Amino acid sequence: MKNICDWNNCSNEGAYKAPVERDNSRKYRMLCLTHIKEFNKNWNYFEGMNDDQICEFIKSDMTWHKQTQSFSSSDNFFKILWNNALNDEVQKMNLKNQNGNMRQFKFDNNDIKAFGILGLSIGIGWTKVQQKFKKLVKKFHPDMNSGNKRFEDKLKIITLAYTQLKNTYRIKIDS
Predict the structure, then answer these.
(1) Element containing residue 28 per DSSP (H, E)
(2) For the chain, which terminus, N or C, has the lower number of CB atoms within 10 Å?
C-alpha cells in the first residue's frame, strides 16, 4: 500500500518522512520528493526559540540531551570504577597480611615439590611466588630461547608448579 503525499492536494506517492513537531518525537508525515525538498528548504529547527534557548539546546545536544551526573552520584560509572579499584587495593592489603601467616600452614608433597621447582623457600609469601614465576617465564620462554623444545618443556613444568601453589594459596586464604 502506497502512502499519498501529505501536502495540500498532492496525489504523488509520499515516500519521505518529515517531522510534525520540533521535539524529536516520532510523529512525522509522508511527503513526495518535490514537497520534501520544499519542506527541507523552509525547515528551521530553532524557529520560535530565542538566542538563550538555542545556546541551551546546543549545549544539551553535546550530551545527547541527557543530564550529566556529579561524581558523587551513586550510579556514576567512574565512581563505581574508582570504588572497585579501592576495594581491589584493600583486598591486596588483606592478602599481604594473610601471607605473613602462611608459615603456620602445612604444605603437602605437591606444594613442596612446586616450591622446589620454582627455587623458593617453603611457605614464602604469595607475592614472592608471583615475582619468581614472572622471572622464570621470561627466562625460559621459547621466544627468548630460539624456540628450543627443552626450554618449552621446562616452562610447562614451571607453569604447573605455579598453578599448584596458586590453588594452594587460594584454598588456605579462603578458609
Answers:
(1) strand 28-31
(2) N
